[in-house]
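Progress note, sequence design subtask.
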């Protein structure tokens, strides 16, 4: 079976490595590794400072390779160690699988037959099985959304640890993370570099809650991932091209057909390349930037930001009209004046607000920093509710 799969991909098996990073999973890692060895010649276990067993001794009677970190350095660091080792041994592909037993080595052939030098394969877990944690379901949706914002890529399961990486391309990239956040960073940087991501359906097994062993630390690891997303968002907003390893061919364009039929404008706007969450995010950006005193360049700035963040351009540009003068600017100036001088402007007139514009611009800026996030959140919630209802109705009609 292995030989046939490797022939489909036209890749000799000796160039494919299976990597199992492990930290305190003594009860499951041996079974996982042996199952992988039945399907691949080269299996590498990276012991990331385990304290529950002697991992090298556990595999002493096998031909499975073992590397060890003296201390726990994080899953990302373990995968980087494996990457360097495989590259030094002329490996072309690195298939990673978790040590906790949630993945099935029987799915490895599906990865082998889809290997490609410029593609990352990610196992899309079947969440219809029993005992799937609610946090995993939410985390997958959350991570998928942010990766789309950062790269424009639609990925079914960005949090799955069952993956296949092209070693040569990964060695050309520089990473700043070393824990669970590395698995997010590697996807973003690979897509920026021109690599593609393909999802492979896989089976998954979860033990009941108390029996499940997880080393994911909710506060610390979520904080790391959040900070990573902030850095990635900041990077994508910079007008600096990414290092390209594989040339890109597809570009997003505004669908001008939306404007030709006013009757279907709203329906088309909601349906154009966006989920309810994506549309809400587009509305948030449009309102937030629309409130700021970006004189005469609102539309240019909004279009630039939503384009870089792969959001719905039409939604952001249309909804920012809510912020047109006079109401929103006047509210910002009033609030800004109060924050600066602890008193309200009692005479609201054209002369006070606009003829004294030079004196009001600083007040507008200060006030907008309060109004912008609050109004943006409020409008985003409304857009999410409306678009979710429309999305459900459309699905109901389709079925």
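Output:
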């Amino acid at each position: 079976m292995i030989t046939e799969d490797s022939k489909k991909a036209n890749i000799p098996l000796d160039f494919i490595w299976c990597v199992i990073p492990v930290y305190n999973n003594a009860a499951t890692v041996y079974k996982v590794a042996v199952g992988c060895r039945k399907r691949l010649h080269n299996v590498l276990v990276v012991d990331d400072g385990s304290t529950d067993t002697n991992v090298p001794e556990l595999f002493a009677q096998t031909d499975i390779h073992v590397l060890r970190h003296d201390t726990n350095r994080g899953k990302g660091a373990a995968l980087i160690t494996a990457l360097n080792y495989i590259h030094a041994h002329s490996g072309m592909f690195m298939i990673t699988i978790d040590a906790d037993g949630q993945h099935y080595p029987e799915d490895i052939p599906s990865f082998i037959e889809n290997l490609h030098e410029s593609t990352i394969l990610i196992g899309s877990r079947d969440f219809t099985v029993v005992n799937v944690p609610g946090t995993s379901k939410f985390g997958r949706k959350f991570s998928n959304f942010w990766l789309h914002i950062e790269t424009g890529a639609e990925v079914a399961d960005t949090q799955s640890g069952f993956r296949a990486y092209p070693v040569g391309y990964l060695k050309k990239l520089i990473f700043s993370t070393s824990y669970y956040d590395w698995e997010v960073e590697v996807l973003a940087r690979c897509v920026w570099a021109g690599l593609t991501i393909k999802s492979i359906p896989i089976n998954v097994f979860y033990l009941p809650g108390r029996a499940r062993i997880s080393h994911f630390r909710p506060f610390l690891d979520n904080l790391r991932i959040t900070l990573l997303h902030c850095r990635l968002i900041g990077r994508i907003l910079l007008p600096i091209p990414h290092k390209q390893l594989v040339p890109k061919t597809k570009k997003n364009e505004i669908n001008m057909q939306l404007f030709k039929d006013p009757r279907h404008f709203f329906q088309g706007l909601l349906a154009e390349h966006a989920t309810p969450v994506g549309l809400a995010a587009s509305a948030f950006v449009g309102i937030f930037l629309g409130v700021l005193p970006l004189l005469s360049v609102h539309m240019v700035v909004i279009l630039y930001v939503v384009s870089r963040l792969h959001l719905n351009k039409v939604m952001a540009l249309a909804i920012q009209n809510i912020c047109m003068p006079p109401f929103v600017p006047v509210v910002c100036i009033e609030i800004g004046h109060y924050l600066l001088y602890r008193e309200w402007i009692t005479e609201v007139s054209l002369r006070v607000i606009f003829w004294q514009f030079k004196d009001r611009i600083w007040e507008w800026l200060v006030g907008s920093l309060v109004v912008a996030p609050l109004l943006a959140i409020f409008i985003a919630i409304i857009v999410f509710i409306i678009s979710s209802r429309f999305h459900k109705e459309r699905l109901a009609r389709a079925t």
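The CA atoms of residues 358 and 364 lie 10 Å apart. Work on this subtask will continue into the next period as scheduled.
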